[in-house]
Amino acid sequence: MREEDIANYLQEHPQFFEDHAEMLTDIVIPHPYGGRTISLSERQLLALREKNKALEKKLHELLEFAKENDELQLKVHQFTGTLFGARDLNALQDAIQYQLREIFAVPHVALRLWETAPPSAEMLTFADQTPQPVCMHRAMYDTQAWFGESAEHLRSFAYLPLRQGDQSIGLLILASEDEQRFYPEMGTLFLQRIAEIAGSAVQPLR
Predict the structure, then answer these.
(1) Overall pTM > 0.90
(2) Residue 113 bridge partners (DSSP)
(3) The pLDDT of residue 14 is above 90
């Protein structure tokens, strides 16, 4: 008889151990972390403890994730409040870049608005056709030059098109020397919030 047959039989007949309760104290199995043997009930207790530890770890991870989200939400709120006090477009552009460095600790920020700095045809097409932020490990088109002397040291980039309706009005780029700060698989929900806030703040001043 195969092991699978025995396992299936016990699953389909849970009353087996009720009918043979004395077996629970007689059966001994190898200890999972040592050479000695233990009873089946002891092994079940160990399994429950391991399961509880795994659940506690998962709960801790979820709480940490929630805490990080709360902190990010607060930073987004602070970022929003500072931008809508800008009096003109130049002041707003300075505020966006400064606050991203101060609040979100983004080491390098570049911002171009098409009204004052018309893009290349390739860049305009990219921004128009990219509704969500995009993260990557290389600079696109001629944008690496936007970071001046720091450009050659940058290893990760987040591209945030600023939009008005279906059209882009500019491009915000976040960059870092850390290759893992922005990477293609990362979530972009908060980056999208930043892009929406910056784009909304720009529109009344254009």
Answers:
(1) no
(2) 170
(3) no
